[in-house]
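Researcher: Here's the sequence for the chain we discussed earlier.
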Amino acid sequence: MQPDGPYRFTHVLGGCQVGKAWAAIDGQGRLVTVAVLDAAVAATPAWREAFSATANAMAQTQGGQPFVYADFAATAPWVAYPAEAGPGAEKLFRALGMDYQPVPGEAASPGADVPSTSGPVSPAAAVPHQVSGPPQQVSGPPQSVSGVPQSVSGVPQSVSGVPQVSAPPHAPWAMHGGPIPVQPVSAAPQPVSGAGAEASTVDPVFPDADRPSSDDLFAGPVRRIKPSAPPPRRTGLWVGVAAAALAVAVGAGATVWAVSGDEKPTDPQTLPTTSGTAAFPSAPAINPGLKPWAQAAPYSVEERSLAIAAPSMVFVEAVFTGTLREAKSNVPLSVTPVTFKRRCSGFVVNADGHIVTNGQCVRPAVQAARERALYTLGRILIEQKRLTAPQLDEYVRGKLNTSVFTGAEPGSEPVSQVFAQFNVARGDLTASPAIPGQIVRVLEPDAGNLALVKLTQPSLPAVELADGGVPGPGAALLVMGYRTTDADFRAATYTVESKPAQVAGTANQGSVSVSRLNDDVGIYSAGGVALDTTGRVVGVLDTDRAASGTPNRALVPVSVVTGLLEAGGTSNGRADTDKVYRDGLDAFFAGRNDDAIASFDRVAQASPVNLLAQAYRQNAVDRARLADESDGPPRLLLALLAGLGGVLLVGLIVLVVVFLRRRPRY
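Model: Thanks. This is the structure I predict for it:
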């Protein structure tokens, strides 16, 4: 069964325990090799991450193996390599430590199949006759001899129907100029050794005057000078030479292979195996959520910008619990409290644990909170069969202006809680790794719609804010925030995503001048960031009230963030760990693997939530390993060169021997 993908797969090139390598053709007719991880293996997250991390590490290596396209999120993940760049799919599986086996030799081309004849072919018909021997006298077809028979001694013999010998071919070894005389053939069968029959007084072929003298050695019918026999064919000699050359080639190749294989593989390449099952990575795969090398061109300024800011991104979930009541009588609409949640993005501004997020997310307006609570109660009534789904909107509209959302007691405020998660987040999570937070300050929607929250955990990675100012029209930025692709948002998985965006214009939202973008990440990106090429935050994502569907395409300027921090008694700042992380990125993008690994090790110990530092450390380890493997020629190439050298040596010896044997001997 062929894999899914935007290619036309032609045939399998090889395979291993966890996948196959395919030959394929893209839509423009270009040849590619595609490494496909088996769907059953890809069901294990550890393998899926190992597959994508190895492919990206190979692509990031200087002079490595870049791929043209990949889909790591597919049921059966795959990576496509240009065919002219070599066996990229095979290299990927070998880099994973797999025992890759190519498909046995290709079948004969269709043009090589020649239909057989209707009947058997005799060996004589198939093998050409040897024509290098001495020429033979070939008689023509029997001819009738007319005329009066010549008399001969002895009993007269009838000559009618006697086969006659046609004129012999010219013999180049004869020294006379005329044709060679031939011996007359009697009616009785005679041997063809060349000896003439006993002649009588009358020769039927030569008249008396023309009969050659017996003293003329070259006039006899017997061939006096015979050509040399052809030299014997030295088949045995050449078979022996071929066998010796093959033995030398195999021996030299095996020796080089064994010697070059003595090197002990590095730890990242070692994969434990179990009987009957595929191997699994020895360490759990690192999943920081956002993978900058997969969302931007490898080693580009965009990748570096995302790598700098991504560790500071947080998923924010605010939980509200209260009671819906009739506004006039304070009679509860439900005997049980109503709980609803709002989700958005945020970012850390200093190592003390202060984050900035969307204001309406953590403290919605009174009417917005009441409407959300009514929808939550309506869905509960639908599950209880007390309301139908088509009646939900009408139910909310009817209760919106006649109800209030309060705390446990009339007139009290609903209870609210705020939680933040780093890297990959999950909805409805209030325990670890979710971090509780306390709201410090909130700006109204017309004043910037931002909130400052203090988390209970310190030593968190922080972003760097750019100097104030609103990005002007045409400015190219990177927007980043949380999103999910799960259908059920309540317990969905959320990851950081990024997109390139451009400033399309400016507008006013209340008293704040905002930039309007041409693209956004999704509904949960409110409170996310826009970055410049240096990884600094130039604005915060908010709802664009003037756009259809209210997407998160309004960009609140950094000056509003700075004012919020001052009002909350704090400021933006990077800790020493953030500076070490930046040094590690500088070393990584400069190709200094050892320095990068050392810096990322320090960051991982001081700030465990920075999984991106651990991911880049692994990338540096993989890149260093690939660089070490590429320092010398591949083992297979060495073996082939050694074998070729052995064959050439044997060939030279054979030429010398043949030359010496053919020298003339005097």
